[in-house]
């Protein structure tokens, strides 16, 4: 694991500036995802110019939501150690926290700009996977979000895993996300209605997340202690919502082809 990518010193500044691998991966993922989004928006929706403000808003909303949910998972710790609230770039984000804040923000922005919501959400399904998969590699480098103890061939030792070999769930998730992207690209060629890719993405990822959480071993919040984590609970809710909306949009397409 390499949580720190490199350090450097600025002129007239006494302290070293630290670049964390996790933050670097998020930035790289965001840049690649932005390029992909602009390309698909131009090709699929004939949107020649997609303002950079669109990506700034997504990044800010995702950052705030991801951090906020991370703090909520262990509120007593941050209440007793408020100085850790300022440690914003060394890691510690909750994906579903970012997701829940980004989606309404994106819908508001698209409606304000008169950009078709469902087709753009289909594009953003792949966009999200790009950022998420690269971000999970950042998690692996930071040594967070690891799995439970295992004696399997895949087991690795993390700095905070008490010298035990654990599941590298970050790499599991990154791999599954790439496979999910391939599935979405396959479905795209046979797409039946706008919003289908997005709903398949959030539904399939919810299933993957529920399963992956059983392999997790780091400290995180639970709805039911050691049985149902926060992420699993949110994933199950999102799965139900995605199934409902999928059936609704599919039926609407049959009525109004």
Task: List the SSEs and their pairings.
Layout: E1 4-9, E2 16-20, H1 21-45, H2 52-73, H3 75-80, H4 95-112, H5 117-142, E3 156-157, E4 165-166, H6 169-188, H7 196-213, E5 222-224, E6 228-229, H8 230-255
Antiparallel strand pairs: 1-2, 3-4, 5-6
Describe this structure as you would to a colleague.
The longest helix has 26 residues, at 117-142. This protein starts with a strand and ends with a helix. It has a domain at 4-181. β5 and β6 form a beta hairpin. It has helices spanning 21-45, 52-73, 75-80, 95-112, 117-142, 169-188, 196-213, 230-255, and strands at 4-9, 16-20, 156-157, 165-166, 222-224, 228-229. α5 (117-142) runs antiparallel to α6, α6 (169-188) packs antiparallel against α7 and α7 runs antiparallel to α8 (230-255). The strands form 3 sheets. A two-stranded antiparallel sheet has the order 1-2. A two-stranded antiparallel sheet has the order 3-4. The chain has a two-stranded antiparallel ribbon with strand order 5-6. It has 257 residues and is mostly helical.
Distance between the termini: 52 Å
Which band does the percent of strand residues land in?
5-15%
Please compute the radius of gyration using only Cα atoms.
19 Å
Side by side, the strands of the main sheet go 1-2
Mean pLDDT across every amino acid position: 87
Coarse structural class: mainly alpha
**Judging from the principal axes of the Cα atoms, what is the shape?**
globular
With helices defined by DSSP (H or I, 4 residues minimum), what is the helix count?
8
- Which blocks of ≥5 consecutive residues have pLDDT under 50? none
Tally the beta strands.
6
Subunit organisation of the chains:
single chain
Binned, the helix content reads 55-70%
Biggest beta sheet attributes: 2 strands, antiparallel
Summarize the helix and strand pattern as letters.
Answer: EEHHHHHEEHHEEH
